[in-house]
Amino acid sequence: MSSVLVWLATVEIIGLTAFPLAYFLFPKLQDRGYGFSKALGILVIGYAAWILSVTHVVPSVPISLGVFLVVMAAGSAFLIYKRGEEMLDFIKGRWRLIAAGELIFLALFIGWTLFRAYDPAIDHTEQPMDFAFLNASIRSTFGQPEDPWLRGEIVSYYYFGYWLMGVVSELSGVVSSVSYNLSIALIPALASAGIFSLVVTLTRSDGAGMRLGVVAGAASGFALGIVSNLAGALEFMRANAVGSQGFYDWIGIEGLDGPAESPTESWYPDEFWWWFRVTRVINTFVDGRGIDYTIQEFPFFSFMLGDLHPHVSAIPFAILFAGFALNFFMSDMIDFRRMRPRDFITVAAMGVSLGGLAFTNMWDLPTYAMLLVGVAAIKAYPSEDSSGVGYVKRAALAIVQVPLVVILLAVALYLPYYLSFSSSVQGIGAVVTPTRYAHMLVVWGAPLALAAPFIVGSFWQTVVGPDWRRMSVISASLAFIPFVVWLVIRLQAFGHATSPVERLIHVMPFALLIGMGAWSAIYECKTRGASGRAFALALATLALLLIMGPDLLYVDDFFGENNERMNTVFKLYYQAWVLLAAVSGFSLYYWLRCRRTAVGWRKSLLTVWAVFAVVMVIGGLYYPPAAVASKTQDFSSSPTLDGLAFVERRSPAEYEAIEFVRNNLPSDAAILEAVGEWFDSGLVSRSTGVPTVFNWPGHQVQWRGNSELFGGRAQDVTDIYQTLDASEAQNLLVKYGVDYVYIGPRERSQYGDAGLDKFDSFMEVVFEKDDVAIYEMRR
Description:
Layout lengths: L1 H24 L8 H21 L7 H57 L8 H13 L20 H13 L3 H30 L4 H16 L5 H9 L5 H7 L33 E2 L2 E2 L8 H7 L4 H4 L1 H16 L10 H20 L3 H17 L8 H24 L2 H6 L6 E4 L6 H24 L7 H27 L5 H29 L3 H17 L4 E4 L9 H32 L2 H20 L3 H9 L13 H6 L1 H13 L6 E2 L10 H6 L8 H8 L8 H10 L3 H10 L4 E4 L1 H7 L11 E7 L2 E6 L2
Parallel strand pairs: 5-6
Antiparallel strand pairs: 1-2, 3-4, 6-8, 7-8
């Protein structure tokens, strides 16, 4: 309990310290950025610690982090000194809005903390990898974090999300095995507070009252963190023997092979890890073999699963940048020839935000850069001459002056990372097998039931003006250029395009919605200025592009050939879910506004929309409570937030060894342990951040693109443990700069006991209990 309170107090202090800065940076937001202040403060401190440590100016240690917090507090104190009375008046006038945002943050944080207490073990999927990188970030002082599973090499992954959570861990003093779980609870809380701030501003700028704006903002937080896809409803049907065999054969989801022989006695399915299947919906089977394996996670699943992956860590910081984009959209156009100090600071802050987002999850960079470029182009549209040349020049100038500078800053400010990063990406390919409509409905039914009618309704309310041709060209280009690119790539690859008409028809529904969204956003901005509706339409259009895109193109990376678009669908669908969550709250407000004045057939259409949306959302609401109850086994275990408690229960000796390594080994130490993949492999190094010679080889290839850096390491580790020649073992340890050797049950099982006695000849036992021992090289 004390760890939770200290962690929460640390986050609140960071947020309160950063609020004056947020107040300065977000003048157009209804809460002046209060909902973003915690994420902003973590980002500012985290970036300062990272850039100064990798450039060897100041080490990243708790004392320096505290100094950075004090410096940020001093900057905020200066802003309060300059604008204290104005800020006080604002707080007095908007305290209910601020309180509502804070309550949403606390509710999400407390709720997910309670869940993590009943499911704390860092022991499945890729949690060990996340834990390893979190510990490596905490342990790092100067330079980039050393890869805990590749001695002597830095982490080759977008690790900034781990770094930021590590900053909070160090400031709070909470041990990493607990802070891992608190980080998983903090991320949805930060994200919901941010999306609340964003959507309240969107609705208020469109004319909504404060109460309705709060409802819409809360609805978006609900859509982001709770609503799930419809596969959970199918799991319920199957478990209760509902539906025919033909239905399940047609739906074609692996694992949902047909109705159960008899209904389950529980209110949720009783199969082991049934809840995992909801993220493996899309596939096409030919002769019983899947040829289009993909992953379709959504935020609630990720929060429940407990992987501290980049796509999860990025959510609050993606919403933070969306807040910057909205503030930019609603502000006066920045002219670099007449920039004020506020403009320079704002552009720099946007660069830090976008760069940090890319460093947290590289896949987010093109999406949110596109958002900024898009809203700049839309914002420039109203000012033009009759020939249209004025708009082209103004749009180009608007993009060059702010978005391009922000994108360049996003790279320049994080250059040490980019210079060291290696990737397995080889180019762009054309998708052969697109997503079936049935699977699209299962995955996207709930979000699109809210967003699609909003786009169509907004388009219906537009009026054809004298510039309709230009608007049509812009909208159609945005909608169909991805198809044209697909066609060109297919022609280059095969000399012909397979069924181009069929593929065009397949993506046409999304292309039409994208065109309508772009047209409506331009029209809205042209007639009413930079409104919340225009920005919401831009978000919806971008989200639809992210959904349609993987049916045409994929990023050619490590997963290649058979799983060609797996990672593309995974990453882009996830971003689309976050964007559509923001649109969902605005769509609810839009429906309520239209309902007030609608009569006749329009009112009937709105009723149909409401019924369909409610059915889809209800379909997405069975999964969360059922999955939570199943994964926690009805909350039957004793609650703890220690992610290593499972090790203590299973092997107290290993748990004590981990504690010994964490508390006693020097900062430059390295330790040898058995090589393996998944689950128990690399237990000591991942739990402490102390690097080992080599581990998780399959993932190392993913992260680095090839095996050049670690060829021969696995054999060297085997030789160290198995050789009877003490000199050979010692020389190999010196080769990798390793001065500690760990011997536990995995090492004994994997390498045998025959070669272990030699360590006594040149090393000292510094820890020993049961079948676990740690040796230290004699000095």
